[in-house]
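Archive entry: two folds, one per protein. Generate the first.
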Amino acid sequence: MESTHQFIGRIKNTAFILVIAVGFCFTNESYAQQSKHALFLGNSYTYYFDLPGLTANIALSAGDTLIAFSSAPGGYTLANHLNNATSMSYIGAGQWDFFVLQEQSQMPAFPLAQVEVETFPFATQLNDSILAHSPCAETVFYMTWGREEGDQQNCANWPPVCTYEGMDDLLRERYMMMAEMNDAIVSPVGAVRRFVREQHPEIQLYNADGSHPSAEGAYLAAMCFYTTFFRKSPLNTNYSYTIAASTAEIIINAVHDMVYLQPNDWYVGAYDPQASGSVEWVAENEFLLVDSSTNASEVLYAVDGNDYNPLLSDSILLSITSPGEHTISLIASNCGISDTTSITFDVVSSIEALSLENQIQIAPNPTKNYARISIPETCIKPQVSIINATGKTIVSADRISNHMFTIDCSTWPAGMYIVVIQDRNITMHQTMMVE
């Protein structure tokens, strides 16, 4: 394990306050300039090559601002940060956009029973404290990597970590587990390193100790964090670092393909608000707007683009009398992020309703065995019910897709039956005789 007396053991408490450069022009709204605040709680893997500052410089090259602080004593564990005055004072300051949590480099790869005692609880405690002070913050787990030759220090007692691949597999698994447990996201540095290591073995990602990152490894990590924080393509960055341009290009393309193009793999955006809803006909010209949005602290609705109003419950009854097509728009928002959806539906006039009713055909009628009900093609989501002479519904079918409904009447008592067809805000009736 990393020694606490290494020179990198000094607490790194640095603020990077950057000014957005003038002259950037983005035609795509998703590339608008952004400003984010991030706190890195880690150890030497965060301290080496000043990962927060390197990430900030990459962001600046793309026209974005990252104000980053870090607490990164060498060899530190998540449990150590809970007892570190500097780390906890940063958490208590609040107003953060991102909290990066990095466990000591070997611990997450230990046997699961040990990790469940020595790592997982402290990840949750830190996450809970973070959200208590910064409710809109996202916790980001810093997925680290297997050592170049595996964890030889613990190999004899725990063979799965004897190789790079074995250790790396476990680290990836455990960081993903921590993210899942805490509704957090992952910066998949370890996963991208593995891809580059396998596809471009000529790139040395390790420091001479076979554990810490080289300049190339640090650049890769910072590129992952930039892409994770800002959700932008790393192809738009142009920070000139101390590595070869050809190597930087390989790393940027790897991050683009694995992080930017596959955000769902790392839960990026998984907890954003999602607007969703439906409109159900109730009676006459009354419609029920049902909100099914997720991860939203506020939902607004508007009918036909008119004023937006807050939706204060899961549903609201709306009266819409004018015939024709109508649109209800929903905006679900939380912590400055919003999502919009629209629901379009028709309100049928009384004249159109009468015309549709006259188009309903039942054949044969009267019938003894089978009857086929033909529903007008202009009906959108027709529902068919058949009611007997006592008022009991004996047949019910929803959303008839082919506008044709066949029923077996061979066992029915002779008499009159009412065929009821419901579509949108109209109810249509036809009489059917069974002999």
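Generate the second and append.
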Amino acid sequence: MARKVKKSEEEGELKTEEGKQIFEQVLRIAKQRGFFVPACMLYEPIAGFFDYLHLGTLLKQKLEWFWRKYWIKQEGFYEISGCVVMKEPVFLASGHLKNFNDPLVQCKSCKTLYRADKLIHDLLQIDVSEKDLASINELIRKKQLKCPKCNSLLGEARLFNLMLQVNVGPLNQETCYLRPETCQSIFVDFAQLYYIKPRLPLGIAQIGKAFRNEISPRNALLRLREFTQAEIEIFFDPEQREHEKFNSIKDKTLLLWEDSLKPIKAVDLAKEIGQFITYYLARTQEFFFQLGFTEQEIRLRKLSQNEKPFYATYAWDLELKTPLGWIEVVALHYRSNYDLLSHSKQSKKDLTVHVNGKKFIPHVFEISQGIDRTLFCLMLTQLKQKENWTYFNFKPWIAPYQVAILPLLKRDHAIKAREIFEQLTELNEFIEFNAYLDETGSIGKRYARADEIGVPFCITIDQETLTNQTVTLRERNSGEQKRIKLIKLNQILIELIKGKIKWQELKVD
């Protein structure tokens, strides 16, 4: 049985010319300015692997910092850092060695490889995710399916396991695998954490690398073989339907999608699925609002019976609308007690807990987010182009750099610029802050470079700076400039970056 083909897997098809242009523009900027590039570029890159350069690393760090602040600090979850190499029994228990397969088919002529179920879905609009290999091959033969690349006949499909095997030890005696998802570390560590903190609900989180030997990695950061996941597993009593913080979100409108948009108040949804799950759906949606996505760019799509994982009682995908279509970035699954029960049987260890006189294996609600996908969707949706002017409209606090410091004339103003750079380092005590000095090229070109990588504010040092201790503060989106006293610069930047004041509201003496 293959991984289920979801309705949202139209991702990355570059269906419109505009979408293709934006995609290519983002890749151009990513390479030229230093966000990300294919790994091993000095040699022949391997598909599905990317290196983050300096800007991409800063943007990814900001995204991970915000995720930790939003979920771990605000919700009181515990963060772990699990090993990426795990023993074979872990994946026997999880079902990955048996079920984590994709049907692989190859063109007889050009030898191009395809994921067979995805290709059939694209060509015939038929879902074969529940079909066995014989049925898939019968359909390929009956419909005489041909290679989209060269129009030749396809060969016979076969199952391909996506796990990446690692043999450990001097004699390769221990069969292990690179984890295909970070959550298995959480499940195998649950008993130890619960022993230390015996309470439910218990939220355990981690950000880390996962690996899948995808048949056809594509579209930059959307489908990778090595990727970063941010996962939360919330262990709870299955009879628990209420949440102590539900009142904080009860009036929120959830953008649910079931074949069409069906907005619903959190308080009404809670009557169907309980406060506990509704709370985390609302919090996940709010996370993306705070990143800068709009109501038109977010939906919580409820998965159909044919789409959701076999272990899930309820399942949603949070999807973002981009120039490439709707992209899944978060999986939200009520996993019941499947995982702990499976690991308990495989390890022969008792994972039951005792709460208020009851003995049971905790159930799990999962929030699994792709960091690379989120970052790429952010770049795709926030790229703005006006005539010859291109910029990323990042929220000020998540941009790779918050400020560019630009001495108008290097020989006259460089020393003062460096003094201001040192002054601004104090901001790290109050906000996540990065600044850089740029002394090369005309001031117009330096503004353009800063805009193109999403820097929200530029500080220009000129002759007036030396005489009256003021600088020019320029705002990215409008290109407007205001004269600011150096003594007030730090506080003004803090308020602008935190969003306490808007640029239009900023009054200067």
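Annotation attached to the second fold: The radius of gyration is 26 Å. Residues 202 and 235 are 5 Å apart (CA to CA).
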